[in-house]
Amino acid sequence: MPEENRDNGKNDFPYPPDFEPDHGCDPYDPNAPVPQEPQPDKQNQSSMQNLKEIGTNTLPDGKSNIHCLTIIGQIEGHLVLPPQNKTTKYEHIIPQLVALEESSDIEGVLVVLNTVGGDVEAGLAISEMVAGLSKPTVAIVLGGGHSIGVPIAVAAQYSFIAQTASMTIHPIRLNGLVIGVPQTYEYLDKMQDRVVRFVTQHSKISEATFREMMFRTGELARDIGTVLIGQEAVECGLIDEVGSVGHAVDKLKRLIRDKKQWEVQSVQ
Amino acid sequence: MIIYTPLYLELVLEGLEDMKELKTRQVELDGVPLVIEDTGPGQGKVVKLLSTNPKDYLRADLSPGTVIKFTQQWSKP
What we know:
By secondary structure, chain A is an alpha/beta fold.
């Protein structure tokens, strides 16, 4: 073994799980037998790199049949947002969903949401993709699932909201050039209808209730709309259940099992 | 394009005018075409994938934001 590699793995932290310090030999004795040191494996190296570069740690190996799709910050659409925004890029999420649909290892998708909304088109695109998956999907809203996060949350087959999580329902606002003609209003109304239609089709909330919440005054300081927290989102029929990650994974596993049973039955 | 968010748009779009155009280029890593942003000599950050293979998008080591390194290796002719 080359001299410079002697120390490899010894001074790295954390040690590889199977590393046992060898106290029996003198590293400076040229005649001493070179101990076989375990090389840090690839998984360990990449997880160390992840930890250093982006502060996240990869999970221990062991293939899961559930894929966790996290949607955080702003949903970035056709416009690259300034760097102070944390964003989820739809051009990466959409092919991921295609891969999940096609993959034979993945049996269910868990959508974890903590988003402040974002691009309407990108958000609706992700919602449609999630709703169109043939595999069981469960969404969980943690922290917040505001604005365009609402259709994504209801797109899954079953949705959970954490007890303290909130969802803001408010009208769409125009940004950029606004021309004061009736067409501007009509266009905005059409865009809003896309969201309303998707939400009412994929959840138990009625269109009248959803619109009433959207245009409610007195709840938000600088805007019209409603903030739903935990149980309130369940009571109005938007979300299926209050729960946390344990409930969500449990539900997803049950949906996967039901789907398998159904498939077996339909073959017989 | 419509941004649908409860955040104030001034906050979201702040600095949009001063945004520099990213210095990007297209490279290939393990046969996957990528767009990377140069972050230093021999180093780049993944901006997006251009692959048409959906499986590539599930690879954690190629997700946007990952730093990749360009290394030259000596080899025998």
